[in-house]
Specification:
Blueprint lengths: L31 E6 L6 E6 L2 E4 H6 L2 H4 L4 H7 L2 H6 L5 H6 L1 H15 L4 H8 L1 H4 E3 L3 E3 L8 E4 L3 H11 L15 E3 L5 E3 L4 E2 L2 E4 L7 E4 L3 E2 L2 E7 L16 E8 L2 E2 H7 L13 E3 L4 E2 L7 E2 L18 H6 L1 E2 L1 E8 L1 H5 L5 E7 L7 H9 L10 E3 L14 H4 L7 E2 L5 E2 L7 E8 L7 E11 L3
Parallel strand pairs: 6-22, 8-16, 9-26
Antiparallel strand pairs: 1-2, 1-5, 2-3, 3-4, 6-7, 10-11, 12-15, 13-14, 13-22, 14-16, 14-17, 18-19, 20-21, 20-25, 23-24, 25-26
The structure holds manganese (II) ion.
The site of manganese (II) ion has 6 residues, from loops.
Length: 447
């Protein structure tokens, strides 16, 4: 998809905060979330704009959205199926419709929020019916997530973790051929802001007998999630794979490393991961991310070329996204003292060994049924530099190199009361930067 008017850096929005340089949600972004006004009301779909959320149900009910349609086909959709989807209490219906209606909606929303259109001026006059301050809403899960799969697409993460457990043989022979993943647990996916209880589980320290108790090596994993959309008939061909991805969010795949180390062989992660996975409430559409596309990871000489079903010149040329990802940490003591969270890592999503398209194509290649709302996560995003490692296991090298927090505390793994905050921002020359909001979670003591 080429760049279009919705990406124009010169667009001006009638919502003043959307013009602030630091905002995650300028008019070029238009991310989706499900919100409930704190003052009461039903959940509804919203669009992030500056420090506000645009109520899509109200925008549709007032007729403004239909008026904002930029062509007849969009107008017909906005009077029919798309209107129903915009007025529903979750993103499920929009996800089922797929990418093409999402693109139509994006154009209409851009027009509705522009300061220089007639419909935009009319919308501005009705702002009190359309907008809620982000401070005054609760953001929930964006959709019914039926299934969740977590990949392992950062070769740096895989190499780091592998070298801790298998120093002689860090990267297993399948890594450069197969996008490795495991089936996660959709039932324990929680929206940003939900506290996460330290899990109990079975661990084994050296040759001592195994024990059952609270994990002592609780960790986060900084990841990007992709939300599946549209009607899908497996298999998915790589050149069309992205038509089945609505957009991206931030994912924290909380992990209990001590439980993981004892249970993971031979079938992979199980209870070390399934106690909680946090997701950011905002879905940033792939259309919004168009200006930030870049080439897929360049495989070093000597690495095998992907097999034909995972090869596509277009995906190789533009299957990556320039997204900077950050992890921030605030301990209970830091919060009590009013200290700001501390950034503990900064990574780049474009360094992933497999593209999202390759992951999705591989996932469906055996006949596995994927459904709208399914979540595909990238795996921990880590780079070469120490500061770009996306989990504490790597950042503190299994706890052997503790981190010193800004107030002087040290961390090998997460302590009770620690808050982990993930942030993401897409940047590219000539484009207005867009962000992902936040994915937060505070660790509660084991029950
Ligand atoms: Mn993970």
């Amino acid at each position: 998809m080429p760049l279009d008017l919705t990406h124009d850096p010169d667009l001006r929005c009638w919502v003043e905060s959307a013009g602030h340089e630091e905002t995650d949600f300028p008019i070029q972004n238009l991310p989706f979330a499900v919100f409930t006004p704190a003052a009461g009301g039903d959940p509804r779909v919203g669009i992030g704009i500056g420090s506000e959320v645009l109520d899509l149900r109200a925008a549709s009910a007032t007729g403004l959205l239909e008026r904002a349609a930029t062509d007849d086909i969009t107008r017909r959709h906005l009077a029919d199926t798309l209107a129903d989807a915009c007025r529903s209490p979750s993103l499920d219906a929009l996800l089922a419709l797929g990418r093409v209606p999402a693109r139509m909606l994006r154009h209409a929303l851009s027009s509705l929020l522009r300061a220089d259109t007639t419909v935009g001026r009319d919308a501005a006059a009705m702002a009190d019916q359309l907008l809620f301050s982000l401070d005054g809403v609760h953001l929930g899960l964006p959709a019914h997530i039926g299934d969740y799969t977590d990949f392992y697409a950062s070769v740096h993460h895989a190499t780091n973790v592998g070298s801790m457990f298998r120093p002689d043989n860090p990267l297993l022979p399948n890594y450069k051929w197969v996008p490795i993943g495991y089936h996660g647990r959709a039932s324990t996916i929680v929206p940003s802001g939900t506290p996460v209880r330290r899990p109990r589980g079975q661990t084994r320290d050296g040759d001592a007998p195994p024990e059952f108790g609270p994990s002592r090596r609780l960790d986060y994993e900084l990841e990007v999630g992709a939300v599946v959309c549209g009607g899908i008939d497996a298999p998915i061909e790589l050149p069309r794979a992205e038509e089945h991805l609505y957009g991206l969010c931030l994912v924290n795949d909380w992990s209990a490393r001590d439980i993981q180390a004892w249970e993971y062989q031979p079938l992979g992660p199980f209870l070390a991961k399934s106690f909680a996975t946090s997701v950011s409430p905002w879905i940033v559409t792939l259309d919004a991310l168009e200006p930030f596309r870049t080439a897929a990871y360049t495989r070093p000489e000597g690495d095998p070329a992907p097999l034909p079903y995972l090869s596509d010149p277009d995906d190789a040329q533009r299957g990556g996204f320039r997204i900077t990802l950050e992890v921030w940490l605030a301990s209970a003591r830091m919060r009590e003292r009013g200290e700001a969270p501390m950034r503990v890592s900064e990574g780049a999503f474009e360094g992933m060994y497999w593209t999202l398209g390759q992951m999705l194509t591989h996932h469906a290649s055996n006949g596995c049924v994927l459904r709208p709302g399914d979540l595909i996560a990238s795996g921990t995003v880590s780079g070469v530099a120490k500061e770009s490692r996306g989990c504490l296991l790597e950042r503190t090298w299994k706890g052997t190199e503790p981190l010193t927090l800004s107030g002087g505390e040290t961390r090998r793994f997460l302590e009770d009361g620690d808050e982990v905050i993930l942030r993401g921002r897409a940047r590219a020359p000539g484009a207005t930067p867009i962000g992902f909001g936040e994915c937060r979670g505070i660790v509660l003591p084991a029950s």
